[in-house]
Specification:
- The structure holds two protein chains of two kinds.
- Chain A is α/β, with parallel strands linked by helices.
- Chain A has five helices and seven strands; from the N terminus they run E-H-E-H-E-E-E-H-E-H-E-H.
- In chain A, the strands form two sheets. Chain A has a five-stranded parallel beta sheet, sandwiched between helices.
- The relative contact order of chain A is 0.17.
- Chain B has a six-stranded antiparallel beta sheet, sandwiched between helices. In chain B, strands 13-12-17-16-15-14 form a six-stranded antiparallel beta sheet. Chain B has a five-stranded antiparallel beta sheet with strand order 2-1-5-4-3.
- Classes of the chains: A alpha/beta, B alpha+beta.
């Protein structure tokens, strides 16, 4: 079963590295740099799983948690945080984030987290 | 000279004038004159001047043919023209002693019938002399004009060049130089260097040593026949000049320089020395005047600098400083007194102190006493009133400034003792500490991303290479370094962690109103008009008072800064909006009518350490953005030539 992962990060290199890694693991990836681009991709139904940075050029990343909560196919969101944003990460978990990863990201951890998120998406698809 | 036509109008005479009368008439003429019978050309009468020129006595001249006096007399051309006056003609006159002299001869007809002629003689040498004299006078006049022009020159060099031109015309010298004391050398060794020059530069030396100046302390005139006293004359002689005249500038015991002329045709010594001394005095006066002017200009520059420094000091001290004129009107308010009294410097200037500084009854008597030179109110606590009427407790000191027993002004020092002031000082300290935290956090964020990129890149490489690849070890080490850097950033952050924001419900309208009020004196200095437009009954947001004050203070300050040269309007608009994701925000737009931000800078203005101000840190907007983000809001900017707008969106506090 194939999943599409939406990577929301304004760092080009971060998107590239993570995207390359996840592609090699058999995932489809889409990379965007802003909240607005992320919203467009989500509205098109392109995102099964979302990797989300906290500080984005056009606003506060976790706002997407609220916005996607209302969607039928609410995609699991994995927050990517720095050590300055721990409180936000806790807050994000409370608001329904699937997981959070701290920078610098360990790819092995990322893989596990994405796998778990994939299980959830797969389960929802079966139930639907 | 009476013409025959005029004579014809004479009244008819009872008796005709005789030869005696005519001779007497001739005596009155300025030139040598001959009264001649027109027909026979015989001389009937002459005057004394004729005898002086011809050396013939009056008797000897009487009744001889006038033509015989001249060598090259051509009758046809001379008498040929009829009319009252012949063209003057230069003829050679043979004098009684057989010597010849060139004279200008003019012949006048004395009667319409042509009965009598008057012939005048003027020696050519005399005419030439007169011409030369006239020439000299006009040149003298011209040089006087040049000198008066020189007196109006603002620069010394062109002034002295004009002087030299005038001196050249006056004296006819071919070479002229002005030497002035060489100030570059130390004062003990007095020497002069050539400052201004006319004519071939090699004719006179470039500078004169102290030793030789001893010989030139008085006016000096040298011609080739004399001994050569100094290198001045030696150089001139080598250049083929035949005379040198010099005069000292300044007093004999305080010589400041030398004026020198030289040439080939030596005029009489006393004449040239006289001229030179007058010139020397004028030049010395001019040099002194310019020296004094340059001292004055330097003093003025000094004083302006000092004044600026004093104003700057006044403006950085934390106390309010008010400077009063001796008649107790306001001369200046510093920034602190502007903000504690609520008036800006320009509007307070020239007003009586009692209109601006309102206090208890003891204030005015104290100022009156200070006006008399008494310092009785040294540090008294009293209640003062802000422009708005609000009272505050302050420590007031009055310091009369007295120089040479004359009152120059009164300085009032005001220290705001109100609680508000104390709190403000404490918050300032807190703000400084918080600032360090913010800066570190921004820095950490900026560093964290590249570390993350390097780390994930390395992991990717390790993953792509076979496990036994020799590079795996290097990649492993690099990854360890990334982890080390990352740990280091963590400890730095832990050390200077920004104070945790205590989030409370905040109404933005009064907060922004207060900040605008605080900025009013600065706005009025920069001719900036505030314009506020707040939607009514806006819901509160969740935020930190101090942090949000910093956000809007930064934006308001930037806006004023952008308009400080042109003035303009600071417009703040506040409204409730809904984001694309149905969340509600308060949007605050802070707009200025400044020149706008260039397109190429617009993308970078929130980046830390990006600044266009020479004294900027580039942290203001980075901190602003960080705080807004910490409030889960966002900030954006739009700019165009003629204005910049910052849009701040902060989430509305959701009802629990």
């Amino acid at each position: 079963m194939s999943f599409t992962i939406l990577i929301v990060d304004d760092e080009d290199n971060a998107r590239h590295n993570i995207g390359t890694f996840l592609s090699s693991k058999g995932y489809e990836t889409i990379g965007v740099a802003t909240l607005n681009e992320a919203r467009e991709a989500i509205n098109l139904g392109n995102a099964d799983i979302i990797l989300l940075d906290v500080q984005l050029p056009d606003g506060y990343g976790p706002i997407l948690l609220e916005e996607t909560a209302r969607l039928a196919m609410c995609p699991p969101i994995i927050m990517i945080t720095g050590y300055g944003d721990i409180e936000m990460a806790v807050d994000a978990m409370r608001n329904g984030a699937h997981d959070f990863l701290q920078k610098p990201i360990q790819l092995a951890q990322l893989e596990k987290s994405v796998e778990r998120a994939g299980d959830i998406v797969a389960m929802r698809r079966e139930l639907a | 000279m009476k013409t025959s036509a005029q004579l014809a109008n004479f009244p008819r005479l009872r008796r005709n004038p005789g030869l005696a009368e005519i001779t007497a008439l001739l005596e009155r003429l300025p030139e040598a004159a001959l009264f001649v019978d027109a027909k026979s050309k015989r001389i009937l009468g002459t005057n004394t001047k004729t005898s002086e020129i011809t050396l013939y006595s009056r008797q000897e001249l009487s009744d001889i043919d006038s033509a015989t006096l001249f060598v090259n007399f051509d009758e046809a051309t001379f008498w040929g023209t009829s009319g009252s006056e012949s063209h003057p003609e230069t003829l050679t006159l043979v004098r009684q002693n057989k010597t010849e002299v060139q004279v200008l001869v003019t012949c006048y007809d004395l009667s319409p019938q042509g009965k009598w002629n008057l012939i005048t003689l003027e020696p050519v040498s005399v005419l030439q002399q007169r011409q030369a004299e006239r020439q000299r006078r006009s040149e003298l006049l011209e040089s006087m004009n040049t000198i008066s022009q020189a007196l109006h020159e603002t620069e010394l060099k062109p002034a002295l060049e004009l002087f030299l031109n005038a001196a050249q015309k006056m004296t006819g010298a071919s070479t002229l130089s002005i030497y002035l004391q060489n100030l570059a050398k130390n004062n003990q060794e007095f020497e002069v260097v050539r400052f201004s020059h006319y004519g071939p530069p090699g004719n006179l030396p470039e500078q004169l040593p102290a030793l030789e100046l001893a010989h030139l302390r008085t006016a000096n005139f040298w011609t080739t026949s004399k001994r050569v006293p100094t290198s001045l004359q030696r150089t001139a002689r080598s250049a083929g000049l035949t005379y040198v005249a010099s005069a000292p500038l300044g007093q004999p015991n305080a010589m400041i320089g030398l004026v020198v002329i030289a040439g080939n045709q030596a005029p009489p010594a006393e004449q040239v020395l006289g001229q030179l001394q007058i010139l020397a005095e004028a030049i010395a006066a001019l040099v002194e005047q310019h020296t004094r002017m340059s001292y004055l200009a330097r003093d003025l520059k000094d004083l302006t600098w000092k004044n600026n420094i004093h104003q700057a000091i006044e403006n950085v001290v934390f106390d309010g400083v008010i400077v009063l004129d001796p008649n107790l009107t306001i001369s200046r308010l510093n920034h602190t007194s502007e903000s504690i009294l609520g008036y800006n410097n320009q509007e307070a200037q020239g007003h009586p102190v009692e209109d601006i500084l309102i206090g208890t009854e003891t204030l005015m008597p104290a100022l009156k006493a200070a006006q008399q030179g008494d310092q009785t109110l040294k540090q008294a606590n009293m209640r003062l009133y802000h422009r708005s009427g609000q009272a505050f407790l302050a420590q007031v000191s009055t310091v009369p400034t007295i120089v040479n027993e004359k009152l120059l002004g009164i300085i009032i020092l005001i220290q705001d003792l109100s609680e508000q002031e104390q709190i403000q000082l404490q918050t300032q300290e807190l703000e400084r500490r918080a600032l360090l935290g913010e800066v570190t956090a921004i820095f950490a964020h900026e560093v964290r991303n590249p570390i993350n990129n390097i780390s994930t890149g390395l992991q990717l490489m390790a993953y792509n290479l076979p496990e036994d690849d020799s590079n795996q070890e290097i990649i492993g080490r690099l990854q360890q370094d990334c982890d080390r850097l990352s740990e280091l950033m963590k400890s730095v952050l832990a050390f200077s962690r920004p104070a945790e924001y205590e989030m409370v419900a905040i109404d933005l309208s009064p907060l922004i109103n207060r900040l605008v009020d605080r900025a009013r004196p600065r706005m009025s200095n920069a001719k900036v008009e505030p314009h506020l437009q707040f939607d009514s009954s806006l819901p509160p947001i969740e935020g930190n008072q101090r942090a949000l004050e910093q956000v809007f203070t930064n934006l308001i300050n930037n806006a004023i800064q952008a308009m400080r040269e042109t003035g303009g309007t600071l417009a703040i608009k506040m409204q409730k909006i809904q984001s694309s994701g149905e969340s509600h925000y308060i949007q605050v737009d802070v707009a200025d009518s400044g020149p706008g931000i260039p397109k190429e800078n617009l993308d970078r203005i929130f980046h830390p350490f990006f600044t266009t101000k020479s004294d900027g840190t580039g942290l203001g907007l980075a901190i602003t953005k960080r705080i807004v983000t910490a409030h889960k809001g966002n900030i954006q900017v739009t700019s165009f030539p003629g204005g910049t707008v910052f849009h701040v969106q902060l989430p509305v506090l959701e009802a629990i």
